[in-house]
């Protein structure tokens, strides 16, 4: 398999994982707003905890980004994923903020 095909495969995998985490974060937001806190909320938070641990281990880089770097010299933020460049650039602050909102609402719901 050539470098271009490998990069496309990595981008597809990275995009699928990104879509999965979008589904999780929006489920979490819905669940805590509607006070439907069930085991899926805790599983979703566990997924984000694992993602955070992975980012910590890889010094705030996704391992897929590091792997894709072998096949591209692009300086664009979205060289390794099929999302708009601006979103790739601000992905971590946007989703970290959403997760913080989820956690604040969750704490509020649990204390009620």
Q: Give average pLDDT, whole number.
A: 97
Q: Output the structural class.
A: mainly alpha
Largest sheet: none
**β-sheet strand percentage:** under 5%
Number of helices: 4
- Portion in helices: over 70%
Would you mind describing this structure in some detail?
75% of the residues lie in helices and 0% in strands. The protein is mainly alpha-helical. The protein has one domain (3-111). α1 (3-33) packs across α2, α1 runs antiparallel to α3 and α1 runs parallel beside α4.
Primary descriptors:
112 residues, mainly alpha
What is the strand and helix layout of this fold?
Blueprint: H1 3-33, H2 39-57, H3 63-69, H4 85-111
Helix pairs in contact: 1-2, 1-3, 1-4
Please provide a brief summary of the model.
The chain is mostly helical. The chain has helices spanning 3-33, 39-57, 63-69, 85-111. It contains four helices and no strands.
């Amino acid at each position: 398999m050539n470098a271009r095909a490998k990069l496309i495969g990595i981008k597809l995998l990275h995009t699928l994982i990104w879509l999965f985490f979008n589904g999780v974060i929006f489920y979490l937001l819905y669940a805590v707003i509607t006070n439907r806190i069930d085991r899926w909320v805790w599983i979703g938070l566990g997924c984000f905890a694992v993602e955070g641990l992975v980012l910590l281990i890889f010094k705030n880089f996704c391992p897929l980004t590091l792997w894709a770097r072998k096949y591209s010299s692009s300086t664009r933020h979205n060289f390794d994923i099929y999302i708009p460049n601006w979103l790739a650039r601000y992905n971590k602050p946007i989703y970290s903020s959403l997760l913080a909102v989820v956690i604040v609402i969750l704490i509020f719901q649990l204390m009620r």
